[in-house]
Amino acid sequence: MRAVQREPLDPKNPLRFTVIRVPFFLEPDYPRDESWSETNRVRLERKWGGKQEFEEQKRRHRLKERGLDAGIKHFNLDRLASSTMQSHRLVQWVTKNYGCTVSETLYNDLNKRHFELGQKLNDRKMLVQAASAAGVDAQKAEEFLASSEGEMEIEGALHILRRMGIHSIPNFIIGASEVYSGAVHSSELIQAFRKIEKTGKGAPESAFAQVLGIPDEVLGQPLDASYAEASG
């Protein structure tokens, strides 16, 4: 997105972006109790069938190298894994009420807190702190997390993902029509964006805005170009 915005094909009609983070559960059967967690190391060794098998998988997929390419210098392997329902709900609520620039700020902060600092994503106190740091009213965020608001929307999005045959992440869905799966290189996404940019019409459709309850006025407020620069 930064590359396309820095050098638009038509400065009078630049491509702008609205980002919706679609919820996905790596571990859908995790207990939603806030007190429950396990280390990610334990989760992955169980998933791959043992310590040796997990080490072999890391080498095959070059996870450390890919993290460095994305600007993540240190993955905390012993980070606390937990249900992500609370964090998914919060990101969607912030998107609906504060717009995608604020929700992206929150999302990036949550990634750092979890993947690098090892914090668990169902910790309400941490989630409120992260929301407040992104500019969200802390009391309102706390009241929201204490409710069950948004859970049905999350379940609805998961149903659409299953119907689309998406069972893993990452996936990038552009304009509700094109799907790019796996660790897609930035050059592929730039090519896709340039193709849309050349039409001069954009790709305003969304496969998930309706089920997630994201209003049209939010979709009409693209990600701030200044944010795209700052987040790099």
From TrEMBL:
Gene3D superfamilies: Glutaredoxin (3.40.30.10). SUPFAM superfamilies: Thioredoxin-like. One of its GO terms (molecular function) is oxidoreductase activity. Residues 74-185 form the DSBA-like thioredoxin domain. This is DSBA-like thioredoxin domain-containing protein. It comes from Ostreococcus mediterraneus.
